[in-house]
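Hey L., structure's done. Input below.
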Amino acid sequence: MLIIGEKINGMFKNVKEAIQSKNKSIIHEIAKKQLDAGANVLDVNVGPASVEPLKDMEWLIHSIREISNAPLAIDTTKRDVMELGLSIAGPDSFINSASGQKEKLDMLLPLAKKYKSKVIALTMTKSGVPANAESRLEIAANIVASCMEHEVEIENLYIDAVILPVNVAQEHANAVLETIRQCKLICDPAPKTILGLSNVSQGTIDRPLVDRTFLAMALAAGLDAAILNPLDKELMNVMITAELLLGKNIYCDSYLEAYGKK
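Output:
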């Protein structure tokens, strides 16, 4: 499974303070720890408190590039910040994220084509997030059609079925799992699937347990990628074990250790 590390985000106090004080060492440490823990991609978000998002995004990316050439997911709602991020992040970058809104797709998909980036697209519109899988899949199909229209390869599309917190939208969990299953049937080749995993446990008491359980269920449904906290070792062990039981890795008694050496 592709893992996008979620920790370089200005919503976290330490990252916000690092951006404000231009303390590269904090960003270096967070980036390195996530990569060492198994992240394949690093999410980069300056956070809503940034008063100069263009300058802050540029500083964050250059800071990360001092210690790693790992792919980056540029996480912003602003087109100019997105384009700047893609232009300096380099190959295999991600747009995080588009949605089912036509105007947003028309804004971001040309950037995906221009920079040959991958696209994370949420199954939501101006009306919000649908409660059922059928409506989510309809939005996903529209996203696929827009990608074709803008000549963005479907292999570079990641559909996010948008998991909401279980304490306020418990009925959505099954709809998300069904959407992940059915996304494989939308077209050939099929888009990949992704989740912002930690959303499911927002506001709950047993956050780590909720995250780990839902991750295993989503993997069984066919999940390809997740934005998560790779520093949660037990969460990573659940992912590795689930993939083992799904036949994606060969069993050995030290399979956790073996995975870490891949």
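The mean pLDDT is 97. The first strand starts at residue 2 and ends at 5.

-- N.
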